[in-house]
Amino acid sequence: MNVWIKWGLIAGLLLLSPGCFDSKPIQNMAYVTAIGLDYKDGHFITYAQVLNFLNVAKSDKNEIGKNIPVWIGRGTGKTVTEALSSLSETSQIRMFWGHVKAIVVDEELLKSKAIVRQSYEAINRYREVRYNILLYSTKTPMIDIFKQKSIFNLPALDSILDTPEDVHAQRSNIDPQYGYKFIAEFNEPGITAMIPTIGITKEVWREDAQKKPMFKITGAFFIRQNEKISWFSETELLGRKWVQKENKRSILLIGNKEEPTATLVIIKPHYRIRHVRNNKQLQFKVELKARAFVEEMIKDATVKEMEALAAKAIRDEMMATYEKGLATQTDLLNLFAELYRSDAKLWHQLHNSKQLLLNQNTLGQIDVKVTISNTGKYKGRL
Fold first, then answer.
1. Over the stretch 255-278, which tens digit does the pLDDT of each residue have?
2. Which of 28, 72, 191, 368 has its CA 20 to 30 A from that of 330?
């Protein structure tokens, strides 16, 4: 057969065959971008934040500040799957779950570890939902969380809820939590899993004279196998940021808190936690090195004086946070987690004999060395 006839037949078949039998136009699907989970009176209550990507897609025709509507669905059921599936009964069009960016869990659900386990097992078993979704807790009504817009009335996709990385790179107080990481921490007996708490504040931003609510990370819940769940505010967790591997940039006031000497920016601190046993008593030592630059000078001080004040401020924050966790035996500095990773045999030995407890002496020496590498446009005195 002539080669041209062959190619002609192939081209004709390609033109006659349909492309995708089950494809749907982008505007004819409801894209779920966030899921909310609550549990009351033996029933799961689920929420779905739905966006139409035609409204949020970047183009030259987008108007900055234009109010983009958010649709919120609410379902109930005896299981998570039943509650989520009930949403499709009235959604009118197909719901697509492959673009879920965040899961928000209500405080009530966290009180039962069995319910927590059942919830993440059900969601992660569903093949469209990915493992790298963000995980939050909240004390705010779920409807208020899901209807919240970003600055300039941008959709939630451009907020802390769905894209916290940019804000975290400027102020690394509490690390974002991802689903796969939480599952690993929750299943490890030696690690305390953290879930950041997202709330809303109306006291910071205004559009002209009108107050505009904005998302804010207000603290975090800490949950550990077979132990009580605890919550701590962002202020109580200030010392935790120094032992977070994703700490990129932190603001530090040095000197007197009421009349500070200077404001420093700490960049990517590096820490190491060691453990020793003195007279059979377990004790930890923290070593931390950090590079800093001067953001603001309020009182005259030499570079060496500011480095010493910065080291003291970091030590004080770490000790204050550690002591906040003593009452509930919450390991806020991840001391036991480091022991579990470096010496699992000793961890199991102490855990089985019920000696794995925090006290005033468990956190021993904190060695901090801060090096100021830049004093800004003005030269600092040595």
1. 988 889 999 999 999 999 999 887
2. 368
